[in-house]
């Protein structure tokens, strides 16, 4: 499974109403650290298979979702479980650290 592009219009359906935990990555095309963690998130999405969903929200195109979550800096990562935020973190991190954080959150 690969990452899923989520918009303001699809945020509730893809994230809050998901039947599996969702890792949401708020990012932008111009953000260097966002580009750094992008490949790691793609790999993790594939490694977890259908156990989790990795959703990417482009903050430039979808400012409402970012504003609703209080995102002030990117990359901003949130783990949703049963429609609720159970964990969040800001900034880039190595793949192993992201995997550990996800494992601890789900």
UniProtKB/TrEMBL annotation:
InterPro entries: Thioredoxin (IPR005746), Thioredoxin-like_sf (IPR036249), Thioredoxin_CS (IPR017937), Thioredoxin_domain (IPR013766). Keywords: Disulfide bond, Electron transport, Redox-active center, Transport. Disulfide bonds join 31-34. The active site is at residues 31, 34. SUPFAM superfamilies: Thioredoxin-like (SSF52833). One of its GO terms (biological process) is cell redox homeostasis. GO terms for molecular function: protein-disulfide reductase activity. PROSITE patterns: THIOREDOXIN_1, THIOREDOXIN_2. This is Thioredoxin. The gene is trxA_1.
């Amino acid at each position: 499974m690969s990452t899923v592009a989520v918009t303001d219009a699809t945020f509730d359906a893809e994230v809050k109403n998901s039947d599996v935990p969702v890792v949401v990555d708020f990012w932008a095309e111009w953000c260097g650290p966002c580009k750094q963690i992008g490949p790691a998130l793609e790999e993790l999405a594939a490694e977890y298979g259908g156990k989790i969903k990795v959703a990417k929200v482009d903050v430039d195109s979808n400012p409402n979702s970012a504003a609703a979550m209080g995102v002030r800096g990117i990359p901003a990562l949130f783990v949703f479980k049963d429609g609720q935020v159970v964990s969040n973190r800001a900034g880039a991190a190595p793949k192993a650290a992201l995997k550990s954080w996800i494992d601890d959150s789900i």
